[in-house]
Amino acid sequence: MTKDRRTVLADAAVEVLADGGLRALTHRAVDAAAGLPAGTTSAYFRTRAALLTALVRRLVERDQAELEAAGSQAPAPADAAELTAALVAFSRARLVGEGRRRSLARYACAVESVHQPVLREIMAPRENRGRAVVRDFLAGQGVPDAEGRTVTLLACVDGLVFERLVAGGEDVDAEAVGRLVDAALA
């Protein structure tokens, strides 16, 4: 199946942002990354804000698909060790290759969303199968406020991913993830 032109441009914008940061995100750079003639990006996204909005929508779309797949492909964790292993594996996938590039773009957009509320609205956490697996596990363990603890646990794991990106690492501290899971269960 061929991607439509807007999707191709949004994916190219993610690449440009991941590789060069927000300053590198220009219509011309996206045209080049997509391998399209100059002016194509501006024909579809007239302003930089429109381009950034399309980029964020595409990131969220791809992230949601990834989280749905992660929650659907593996069996529900039977214990804290299995949940920890699943969170570590997911975090590692966000630190290498395509996952790393999307993570870099995601965090750049998160910072930009402080100044552009429309981006913050698009990036707001959403329900997905991956999140439901964590919440259901915590609820099954009798944890009070499983939803709140799920949000906190996933935010903390996300923080570990961010720290590794900034420090240049490609692996998360599995022991730290285990301590976060234990804290969520306490």
List strands and helices in order, with pairings.
Elements: H1 5-20, H2 27-34, H3 40-44, H4 48-73, H5 80-93, H6 97-112, H7 117-123, H8 129-140, H9 146-167, H10 174-185
Helix pairs in contact: 1-2, 1-4, 1-6, 4-7, 4-8, 5-10, 8-9, 9-10
Keywords: DNA-binding
Domain HTH tetR-type: 3-63
Protein name: Transcriptional regulator, TetR family protein
Summarize the structure.
With 186 residues, this protein is an all-alpha fold. The chain is built from 10 helices and no strands.
Largest sheet: none
In terms of DSSP E residues, the strand content is: under 5%
Q: Specify the helix fraction band.
A: over 70%
CATH class bucket of the domain at 58-185: Mainly Alpha
What low-confidence regions span 5 or more consecutive residues with pLDDT below 50? none
Count of alpha/pi helices: 10
Globally, the shape reads elongated
> Mind telling me the CATH superfamily name of the domain at 58-185?
Tetracycline Repressor, domain 2
- Helices and strands: which structural class? mainly alpha
In CATH, the architecture of the domain at 58-185 is Orthogonal Bundle
The mean pLDDT is 93
Instruction: Quote the CATH topology of the domain at 58-185.
Output: Tetracycline Repressor, domain 2
Radius of gyration, in Å, reads 18 Å
Summarize the helix and strand pattern as letters: HHHHHHHHHH
The rounded distance between the terminal residues' Cα atoms is: 47 Å
DNA-binding region: 26-45
Keywords: DNA-binding
Organism: Streptomyces purpureus
Domain HTH tetR-type: 3-63
